[in-house]
Design goal:
transmembrane helix; 10 helices; membrane; MetI-like_sf; transmembrane transporter activity
């Protein structure tokens, strides 16, 4: 192994560009999946006739498909139907679709964990179902689901590495290019890549643990 050859200024700059691209992809996907996940999870909790069961089936289908298959479908199958996205758009769509289903289930479970007595008390005091959901169920439920949500965000960040399969210029993709220069720099390059992923994910896991300890 040769750390000197691996950690040249050009290689480090190229890897950091991939790392920043990874963070950008993760940030956009996390934001979108959180918005859609909360919306769908809330609609499922509300048990709206037809709509809630339909969303439930959609969530279950997506949750039981491999993310890699979803990536392939969006990037290579949809264009045959005339639906095309940019490379970055395809990655965001795939991650958002998959994580939305996961987050929706977290949200639904979090809302269902709210004490039914609180809900009944709110309804008996004259609050409508919507106001009860908005002022009672959502605030309490969202607070309880913060740790599992952070865990899902960590999973999403790690899943960005799968985008190497469609040649997205994220961290893993750029690392593969660097490693292609010489066999002696494979270990140092992967060590740095692992350290970058670990640093971000470990920081997020510490946040999740701290939030969880505050609730106990």
């Amino acid at each position: 192994m040769d750390f000197g050859k691996a950690y040249t200024s050009d290689n480090l700059q190229f890897l950091m560009e991939g790392f920043l691209y990874t963070l950008k992809l993760a940030a956009v996907s996390i934001l979108l999946s959180f918005i859609f996940g909360v919306l769908i999870g809330t609609l499922r909790y509300a048990r709206i006739p037809v709509l809630s069961p339909a969303l439930g089936w959609l969530v279950e289908i997506i949750r039981n498909l491999p993310l890699l298959l979803i990536i392939f479908f969006i990037r290579f199958a949809l264009p045959e139907l005339g639906i095309r996205f940019s490379l970055f758009g395809s990655a965001v769509f795939a991650l958002t679709l998959f994580e939305t289903a996961m987050i929706a289930e977290v949200v639904r479970s979090g809302l269902r964990s709210v004490d039914k007595g609180l809900v009944e008390a709110a309804r008996s005091s004259g609050l409508s179902a919507f106001r009860t959901l908005r002022h009672i169920v959502l605030p309490i439920g969202l607070k309880r689901m913060v740790p599992p949500l952070v865990s899902q965000f960590i999973s999403l960040l790690k899943d960005t590495s799968l985008m190497v399969i469609i040649s997205l210029p994220e961290l893993t993709h750029n690392a593969n290019i660097v490693m292609g220069q010489h066999i002696e720099i494979v270990f140092p390059t992967l060590l740095l890549v692992a350290g970058l992923y670990f640093a971000v994910n470990y920081a997020l896991s510490l946040v999740a643990r701290r939030l969880e300890s505050r609730q106990s």
